[in-house]
Structure formats: C-alpha cells, structure tokens
C-alpha cells in the first residue's frame, strides 16, 4: 500500500514519532504535497506493516480553491532520504525509486 487518504489515517503510538510532524514545506505549491510526503515516508519506514480498511464512503460537496500544483516524487524521496540515518541514505530502495519516479513511466510504479 502506498497511497491513502491522509485525512483518515491512523498510526500506532510507536510509529507516530517517526511519521509526524507533517512536512508542510510544499503547502505553497500544493496542499497535496504534505499528503504525498506522508504516503512516501510511511512507505519507506513501514512498507511491510501498513494496512488499509477501505469500506468507507465520504462526500464533500464544498471544495474551495487551494494550491494544487505538482510536487515531483523524486524531490519528496530525496527529502525523506536526507532525514534517515547516514547508513541508510544510499539504500537501493531510495536510489531505485528516485530513478523510477524521474522517468516517464512513474505512474505505473505508483
């Protein structure tokens, strides 16, 4: 699992210190940026321990204008990588994903 609705996310109390606080540096460009960062950080830190309960329907008829630009996934991955311990920064999962997400077929990877 890689993508989820961050408005309805729940984290184990032992995981929360690794995931939070949200990184809001992308908010001026896109309000989705913090969510994309949360998705990717959850994937890298806990990718074999994520679960999803999908039996939920939500309707929000009142969307307002907000920054909805595009944040390149390689930028998010590099940011996350810069915050992990030095011994993990060159791990294959980071280098491979940066290369894939920078390519034309990144959508297939998602």
TrEMBL record:
This is Uncharacterized protein. It comes from Owenia fusiformis (Polychaete worm). The lineage of its organism: Eukaryota, Metazoa, Spiralia, Lophotrochozoa, Annelida.
């Amino acid at each position: 699992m890689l993508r989820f609705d961050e408005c309805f996310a729940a984290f184990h109390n032992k995981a929360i210190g690794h995931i939070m606080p949200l990184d809001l540096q992308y908010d001026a460009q896109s309000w989705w940026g913090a969510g994309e960062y949360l998705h990717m950080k959850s994937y890298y830190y806990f990718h074999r321990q994520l679960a999803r309960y999908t039996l939920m329907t939500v309707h929000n008829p009142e969307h307002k204008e907000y920054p909805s630009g595009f944040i390149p996934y390689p930028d998010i991955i590099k940011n996350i990588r810069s915050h992990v311990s030095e011994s993990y920064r060159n791990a294959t999962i980071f280098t491979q994903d940066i290369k894939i997400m920078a390519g034309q077929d990144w959508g297939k990877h998602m």
